User: Fold Histidine ammonia-lyase from Pontibacillus yanchengensis Y32.
Amino acid sequence: MITLTGHTLSLQEIKRICYDKEQIQIAPTSIQKIQHSRNVVESIVENGQTIYGINTGFGKFSDVKIEEQDVNELQQHLIRSHACGVGEPFPEIVSRAMMLLRLNALIKGYSGIRMTIAEQLTTLINEQIHPVIPQQGSLGASGDLAPLSHLALVLIGEGNVFYKEKVYTTKSIFSLLGIKPVELKAKEGLALINGTQAMTAQGVINYLEVEKIAYQAEWIAALTLEGLNGIIDAFHPAIHEARGYPQQIKVAQRINHILQDSNLVTHQGEKRVQDAYSLRCIPQVHGASWQSFDYVKEKLEIEANAATDNPLILENGQTIISGGNFHGQPIALAMDFMKIGIAELASISERRIERLVNPQLNDLPPFLSAKPGLQSGAMIMQYTAASLVSENKTLAHPASVDSIPSSANQEDHVSMGTIGARHAYSILQNSRRVLAIELICAMQALEHRELGKMSSHTSSLYKKVRQIVPCIKEDRVFSEDIERLTLWLKESDFSWNIFPTNSKSQGGING
Assistant:
């Protein structure tokens, strides 16, 4: 059971809640804050004060005063009219993360909701009822209005939900489980949709997958180094300490550890004086990607605990201010940075694939073919990798540099952060496939070396992967191999974290 406070949610806790389906509860201190801020909202309604979003219209309609008897109806109209999302739904795990993050923001006590709203979100999360939320339609400022409106629809018993891996109407699942829809009161609709939780939820899921992929990329690169008799001297600690980037230093340390007892890697001058950049510069390139991921992680953990709706009830209820915390620019920039970091892991991987299959660049059979000429071997796998890398380049164009005014120019600069987060997820999927192709090619290259000379770590990985993709003894439909191995990479966890902190210790592969 994880207790939410609105201030302390970590990415690892999000992982436990989203992936492991751990149950949640709200901290007693947060309950008190929720109740206090709600009292402020009800006092405003009773006293007839004019406060944006409580008794006014929204966006360009902010100057339209809403009568007391209509403030509840205003919230229902808001949710239904703003539920304009289109396209394929977000993955179910992103929907779950979105609910969690929205709840964590609301219980900070700045939003003026009733406990009923927080309790409803808690129930949905614990019962694993996840809103079906279309991916497209958010500008990433004024919050993720369209996606979060589809989330809010479910709280009031409308829209559709994922439940036990199928899609149902919310009404049918609520009836089945005895859950009552909530009736939104003053400010609650706006509090639910004014926020950055769509882009942040997708961003968190991106990060949790990217972290795994980045570690896997190092393992796969190590196999390629063995398959090409790469020069291990380029990973000497002194080189990387001389430059000083911690991430670069750590990548070199991990590669050295993985290959510590390998007899397939070489030293400079044995076979060649130096390797191509795609081998020699693995720590520099992968390390730079890790820098981008570290930046993203920091921003996501801040945003996961941020108050991002508008207006906010501040200073113990004494101050209510309309501001702009819903603007997604911090996450938009982070997602664009993440896109570049992931794309570069795939880009350098594709260059290593080329070195594995091109007979002009190695001493292996052309295209790793069992019968060169009669059989094409891995020739077209490199084409596929190149296509995916090229697609990544178009997706990596920053979404955050674009802005289109909305709401009659009241909302005249927007972040497009949700587009950036979605594109990052697409790049991530493409990159995993590129790495799967490199892994297939690296293992095939190793078939032409002495497998007994592999390091103990890479040998363990090799044996695991050979259960997924057999040796290429003749041409077959390689698409099936790529997809099967891609799925295995997504579901497996072989990362640096499996090793004890003692760098001399032996680790195994957990997969």
